[in-house]
Write a structure and sequence with these properties.
Elements (H helix, E strand, L loop, with lengths): L4 H21 L5 H20 L12 H19 L5 H21 L14 H21 L21 H21 L1
Helix pairs in contact: 1-2, 1-6, 2-4, 2-6, 3-4, 5-6
């Protein structure tokens, strides 16, 4: 993406760490969690690579169309899997956003938008609104619930890779990353 180097590297670190944690979540005994974690790991690592500042590495021209193909496949998979749960619709939107950003980068790898004119293109604006709402809702879901007890026995606590609040935090961080990336195109 085309932003300053320091925030770009922070975004790379955030997305790579999220992708790495999602890989660890793939060891869960719950199959639905494993599948979601795999999708999220792909998204995290894909975002990390896409966020590398242009001043550090300028990818060859074939990279962006390859990105579009990989995340287009991820979008089709998410569409297919969405039959069983609405959470996969978010994966569909995220993969479609990655395809869109890859298409923008293919059309204009050195400039911001290839659309001409002034202002934010309609699709970029729609994706920005979606991810802003997603980040706000995800943040609220992480707030502790009043009256919840912390006296859960350690034996009944889930493994750290199966903790739902950590999975939500990962999704929140990827939503923030997607928002930041969309702001830079």
């Amino acid at each position: 993406m085309h932003g300053p180097a320091s925030p770009g590297w922070l975004l790379v670190a955030l997305c790579a760490a999220t992708g790495a944690y999602c890989l660890l979540r793939m060891r869960s005994s719950d199959e639905t969690q494993r599948r979601a974690a795999g999708d999220e790991a792909l998204m995290g690592f894909g975002m990390a690579v896409m966020a590398v500042p242009g001043s550090a590495f300028t990818p060859p021209a074939w990279v962006w169309p390859a990105y579009a193909v990989v995340f287009g496949g991820a979008a089709l998979r998410a569409l297919w899997v969405a039959r069983s749960g609405t959470h996969h619709l978010h994966h569909l939107v995220g993969a479609a956003a990655m395809v869109y950003m890859a298409a923008v980068m293919t059309a204009s790898p050195t400039a911001g938008h290839a659309h001409g004119g002034s202002g934010v293109p309609l699709l970029t604006g729609g994706l920005l609104l979606y991810f802003a709402a997603y980040v706000l809702i995800s943040g609220v879901r992480l707030l502790p619930v009043a009256g919840a007890t912390g006296s859960t026995a350690a034996a009944s606590a889930p493994a750290w890779g199966d903790r739902p609040e950590l999975a939500r935090a990962c999704r929140l961080s990827m939503g923030i990353g997607m928002l930041a990336m969309l702001l830079t195109i």
